[in-house]
Amino acid sequence: MHYFTVETPYIRLKWEGPCVRWGVPLVVEARLLEGCSSVTVYPAPDAPGLAEQTPYRLLLESRDGHPVALRHVNPALLRGLDVLYAGRLWHGTLQFGTHVGRTDFVVWHNERPHLCLEVEVFPTRITYRADYEAMLADLEAFASELALRYGSGFWKRGQPEPDRTVLGTSGWVALLQAHLEALAQAFAHIRRRPLTSMVRMRTWQPLEVVRYPDPMLHRSLVARGGQGAETQLLGYRVRRWHSVPHSTTTTDTPENRWLTWQLIQTHHLLEQVRAHLAFRSAPARQQALHALGERLDQLRAYLPPASIRATPPPPTQRLFRAEGYRQAYRIFQQLRRGLSLLEGLLQFEVGQVHELYEYWCYLTLLRQLSRQTGCPISWQSLLKEGATGLDLRLWRRRGLSFPLPGGGRIRVVYNPRWSARKLLVPQQPDLLLSCYRPGRCTVHYVLDAKYRVETSPGYVRRYGVPGPPAEALNDLHRYRDALSAYFMQRDGSYVAQALVLYPYREGEAGTFAGSRLARAAFEEAVGALPLLPGFTVYLEAWLERVLRQDQGVHRTVSSGTK
Predict the structure, then answer these.
(1) How far is CA 514 from CA 376, 497, 498, in A?
(2) Span 2-122: which CATH code?
(3) DUF2357 domain location, by residue (predicted)?
(4) 5, 145, 517, 551: least CB-packed within 10 angstroms?
């Protein structure tokens, strides 16, 4: 099925794919990267949106005989393309795997970047505009909650209340607006008294003004180099103008480069926030965001000239102490606490859905444990402060603990791994939940987040609802058996249960509760739980059951798993 065609006077690109009807619109944009008369996109009237894990056919041809090429930041996407006729024709298959979101392809013509093609890839297993966006918003809210508590020493004990976004994208924009006037005042002071430094650079000067010749000037005189008319010097004919070292004052200092980088990055991410909110924001809101971006552009003129690097230089003592710079540094650090957390969430093209779902499941489990135990999540374990602000880091194989009544604790480990030195076959589930109680045997629970759903009629007849593939359930048996034997031999503990977390939302309340998967999750050693934003009821019920189990129940489960 034909999806769309992109044409310029020099290239033609055709995109084809399977004939499907799934109600997602095609999103494709093309913009020129060099001078050209026009670029035109011809979408098919009934073309569906691009989907993950779907093969597509692509044809790129030159219209004037010069070679063409297709480039992407992930070269693995282009492995299925063949090049013919000395680079004048590219054709083959392309598949995005589990990558979703917006991504760019660059078409080269005659060894020059010619066209940027931006497409949007949609996930097929969860609703893009609902569950996928809600998952990103939930991660954003969680990260913002930690950022607001960072360094404050205050928190509110977890309560089993509905999620509330403390500082989402709208909250960050409000924070930026609140600090904009103070930032302008700091920049105005910097404009009056900028920090400078002395640098030595080579400039063309006449010989009569040179006071301290250097070896390079001597070599230039001997080699009869230089520029301009010839003159007499100590009986030799030499050129009058030569490149000599000269000390000058410059504003290209680490402090000015740091502020310039922060301002540009803030403006860039404001544009991403605008795109992120475009589909649900009123025109007045979009106009206000546009005005905020123009104000940031105006502030750029307040800063002294400085070079722009790919990364900011490390902060210096002069940045911390100089008037104007000190205030601007504090403002940017406050913004970056939200900004750097948003940055990784708004760049859809760098993430994969299965990784996003795995991260969200882990952080959702932490939030539920925090609420049910009444203990706040330790921000030191998840946030790392760097030169550009705060980064949300999910440390692999590092545990987070929550206290339990009676002196016990429950511990969550993200991506634990047991190597071949400990087990015959290495094991690495997504999550390990361990309950430690004084005087009792330690109980472990293995959780594996699987972004896969089996919806075939035979599967639904067997289990009652759509669920994870059978091989995912078989993996749980392998985890439980291998790790139970390892823990039992090490310290007498055991794996009581292994569960799959999968993206599913029941259509009618109670549908999952009556399924075979639900009975297995709450009564047997291996089962599955549906988990999506706004649909965490079964995970909450399962955690409540785990937290209130007594020793006798644990021993009963243990005997059943053996």
Answers:
(1) 34, 20, 20
(2) 2.60.40
(3) 92-332
(4) 551
